[in-house]
Write a structure and sequence with these properties.
This protein has about 100 residues and is α/β, with parallel strands linked by helices. Helices cover about 30% and strands about 25% of the residues. It has three helices and five strands. A five-stranded mixed sheet has the order 1-2-3-4-5. Helix 1 links the parallel strand 2 and strand 3. The longest helix is centred in the first third of the chain and has 12 residues. The protein is globular and about 50 Å long.
């Protein structure tokens, strides 16, 4: 588990090596969520909590993160490109044309 506070972006970042809720008490999602909550007590209230995951979480974990105001991020395509639920929603959203669809 790695913890980082980025003062330039006001982000508290914690990594989690597994998507399992409890990994024998070592590095599971519950542990990471608890770590974020514990560390956030010492930071200003506007700090954004970010949880770095090894892969996209299922909807149930996504609900847990939304409830706790945690932004999950996970790698896509390569180990240095990450995404989050908001970016995934934008990718799947139909294009909007304010003046109607352009003709081809």
């Amino acid at each position: 588990m790695v913890e980082l506070f980025d003062a330039t972006t006001s982000q508290l970042v914690v990594t989690c090596a597994t998507l399992q809720r409890d990994n024998g008490g070592v590095g599971g999602v519950w542990y990471a969520v608890g770590t974020l909550a514990d560390l956030a007590r010492f930071l200003p209230p506007h700090v954004r909590s970010v949880l770095v995951l090894p892969a996209e979480p299922d909807n149930d974990l996504g609900g847990l993160f939304a409830l706790r105001s945690i932004t999950p991020v996970w790698p896509v395509d390569d180990p240095i490109t990450f995404t989050n639920p908001q970016q995934q929603a934008r990718i799947n959203e139909p294009l909007f044309y304010p003046n109607g669809e352009p003709s081809l």
